[in-house]
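Reopening this ticket.

The earlier resolution said the output was attached, but the attachment link was broken on my side. Pasting everything inline this time so it's all in one place.
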Amino acid sequence: MSDKVKRKYVKHDHEERVMAIKKVLEEGWSIRAAARLINANHRQVSFWLSTYEKYGNLRPVRKHGSYSAGFKRKVVSDIVRNSLTLQQAALKYGLPCASAVRTWKERYHKYGDAAYIVKPSSVRKPDMSEKKKDRNKIGNVAELASLRKEVEYLRAENAYLKKLQALVRERNARPTGKG
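Inline output:
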């Protein structure tokens, strides 16, 4: 690994974002220096700065959420046609971040226009919760079998010890041949 340290992705609250933007605009800091101050990626700070300059605040026009297939197709085709970066596209369409745009673009390159067709619920893959339930059922069946085997072993051990105890009692109850 080089001098650069890998950073975890960190969500920055509104105050941190404003502080970074103020450092750049009012105090003349570089975008990289402001990013280091709050432990952010310089591209993210650049995106916040562009959002602030375009809209007058750091709040995106659109909120995180689901977008229509037509909207996604429009954004991706604009990226392809006009060679926009993900950040430029997110800024142009007022999206809160470029990561969603990256996903839309990757799906487009993988599946073409079919990437944005919404499948009916009967065709969709089951939710993760359903998969987890299935996994839990399998785990429970295996655990149940293991517990049954253990109970069977303990019952046999208990029966053996009772039999041994009865034999010892019987032996002690017999009169000894010594006189």
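Reporter confirms the inline version is readable. The mean pLDDT is 79. Residues 110 and 173 are 85 Å apart (CA to CA).
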